[in-house]
Amino acid sequence: MTKKIQWPLHLMILPALLLILVYSYGPMFGIVIAFQKFIPARGLGGSAWVGWDNFQYVMAMPDSLRVLRNTVFIAVMKMAANLVVPITIALLLNEVRKEAFKRSFQTLVYLPHFLSWILLGGILIDVLSPSVGIVNQFLGTFGVEPIYFLGDRSWFPFVLVGTDTWKEFGYNTIVYLAAITGINPALYEAAIVDGANRWKQTLHITLPGMAPIIVLLSVLSLGNVLNAGFDQVFNLYSPQVYETGDIIDTFVYRLGLVDAQYSVATAVGLFKSVVSLAFILISYLLAYRLANYRIF
Amino acid sequence: MVEPYSFGRRLFVGFNYAFLTALSFLCLFPIVHVLAVSFSSNAAAAGGFVKLWPVGFTTASYEYVLMQGEFLDALLVTLQRVGIGVTVNMFLTILVAYPLSKEASAFKSRTAYAWIFVVTILFNGGLIPVYMTVKYTGLLDSIWALVLPGAVPVFNVILLLNFFRNLPREMEEAAFMDGAGQWTTMWRIFVPLSLPALATITLFATVNHWNSWFDGLIFMNRPEHYPLQSYLQTVVVQQDLSDIASQDLDLLAEINDRTFKAAQIFLGALPILLVYPFLQRYFVKGIVLGSVKE
Fold first, then answer.
1. Which of A18, A42, A91, A116 is the mutation pick for testing B, counting most B CBs within 10 A?
2. Taking CA atoms, what residue in B is nearest to A284?
3. Angstrom distance (rounded) from CA A108 to CA A17
4. Do B92 and A19 touch (CB under 8 A)?
5. 3-state DSSP assignment of residue B6
6. A25:B120 CB<8 A
7. Which CATH number covers residue A215?
8. Residues contacting residue A247 through CB under 8 Å, at least 6 positions apart
């Protein structure tokens, strides 16, 4: 019986399979242009093979090390902030007894997550502007000189981390809050009987209770160590802050689609994909070992 | 849990409420501020008099936006994209999730298929090869360039197949007993029972298509084919390098520009702001479903 009813299952998968073969696996073959001196008019077959030349060229570029450093620095800071801030806020929110307050808080802080970096970019450019921005107006009342947050090299990476945390902490808070809700209430009752105050309860019950999800999410975020957030950086940066704000993805975009250096851009992209894949595989392995996590 | 409320505890609770209130205000503040700017007169916006409420209320900038042919063209492209894109996404999500939700004993190739799909989230060809694939398949400048490369949302497939798996097996067996085939079982049993999950995933897909901009920017050669967010990228975000405090020369031009941009930002966010209060509880379920299973 099972034999007879299997072919419709293959048929169901077929359209999606064809599409990902073309649009996800197809580009994987395109990676060969990283090892060619690719000339679009000649195509993949006609372009000359150059081996590792493109990679050597990139390594000799003065910008490369800087871009790599920026990417890791920004990504790691974001990973840390996106761990610490939501956990802290979930703990604070857990102390709130009024359900209505809790719900409206979640509704409000969760909103920026749903707006694109285009819209938020537009909003932040306005709000942070040195001439008309309300943030600088506010700081001005304390006598602070206007700060060009998005145009100042030393400020820019921290503005990226700050605004990313601002956008995403609501989303992450909900996950941690769900984990807290899942903790067995009997544990708290026992702790109260033993004379533990709220702080002691948080320290010895809530935090250990959240540990599995904290471990899981921090381990899974490892895969993002070279993802500093293309959408955000692309919409907030300008040539003035390339030195501290340029990341691998924006670098690849400019090399490939602006300067038309297809082979070099693909080589940089390949480097990023391979390193990211290694980090993702390590993180899934760790997540499986530490938190017994499986994708499905 | 009855606890005596000590002084320290009451102090903490007070601070906690104040802090969390301030935080939620902080999330909303920039959005409300820009909304207020969009409804303010040029002079008030330029002088920096606008805080959270419009000063010199006017809808002039909105009238100006809606007179722009480009804005309306882009909106139309986005609506078309959301319509086609979400339909394709949902069809394929269901069609893939159903077979993959079977036990390996009932569908032998299941694991192989599952890996073929999952690999696409782990590794991809990168910007240039993807661009060339879209070009070689003749999609440049067509709405399908915005639909087909992302036609199979693998993350949503995983969400739905986990949901399918938790449905009672007995219903499926009863359907087979009654002579239903796989297609009938999928459409008449699994899909109707999964409406909450399907609603969540539809919302994910809709927001995703509404917010996408980069594919529009690179796959569309002609600006009149840009979807709304790509169009907004070119008019709202591209940085004005003259925005330095000391340069007051072309201030007047910048003022008009400011309320004009604010109005476009708000219109670009409007659909999400409208549906958000009603739908966010679904999203909450979606996240929790996606991240803390078991």
1. A116
2. B122
3. 39
4. yes
5. coil
6. yes
7. 1.10.3720.10
8. A67, A70, A71, A74, A228, A229, A230, A233
Residue B116 corresponds to which tokens in the numbers above? 């073929």
Residue A23: its chain B contacts at CB < 8 A?
Answer: 130, 133-134, 137, 148-149, 151
**Which B positions 60-99 lie with beta carbon below 8 A of chain A?**
92, 95-96, 98-99
Over the stretch A256-296, which tens digit does the pLDDT of each residue have? 989 999 999 999 999 999 999 999 999 888 888 887 777 66
Chain B nearest CA to A61, separation (Å):
20
B267: contact with A, CB 8 A cutoff: no
Q: How many residues does chain A have?
A: 296
Q: Which two tokens stand for residue A131?
A: 């001439």
Q: Which of B28, B81, B128 to mutate to test the interface with A (most CBs of A within 10 A)?
A: B128
A175-207: per-residue pLDDT in tens? 899 889 888 889 999 999 998 888 899 999 999
Q: For residue A130, is it within any domain?
A: yes
In a domain, A257, yes or no: yes
Q: Would A260 be classed as within a structural domain?
A: yes
Domain count, chain A: 1
* CA-closest candidate to residue A78, choices A7, A173, A165, A177: A165
List per-residue pLDDT tens for chain B, 294 residues long. 455 678 888 899 999 999 999 999 999 999 999 999 999 888 888 778 888 898 888 888 888 888 888 899 999 999 999 999 999 999 999 999 999 999 888 888 999 999 999 999 889 989 999 999 999 999 999 999 999 999 999 999 998 998 899 888 888 888 888 888 899 999 999 999 998 889 889 988 999 999 999 999 999 988 889 999 999 998 888 755 444 444 444 444 444 688 889 999 999 999 988 888 777 777 676 666 555 443
The answer to whether A108 contacts B129, with C-beta atoms less than 8 Å apart, is no
Domain with A278, as residue range(s), is 62-291
Domain ranges of chain B: 1-57, 65-291
Q: Could you say which of A6, A126, A217 has the minimum Cβ distance to residue B34?
A: A126
The CATH number that domain B65-291 falls under is 1.10.3720.10
* Helix residue spans in chain A (DSSP H): 7-20, 26-30, 43-46, 53-60, 62-94, 99-110, 117-127, 134-140, 156-181, 185-193, 198-201, 207-221, 230-236, 242-245, 248-253, 262-291
Closest partner residue to B288 (CB to CB) among A6, A150, A178 is A178
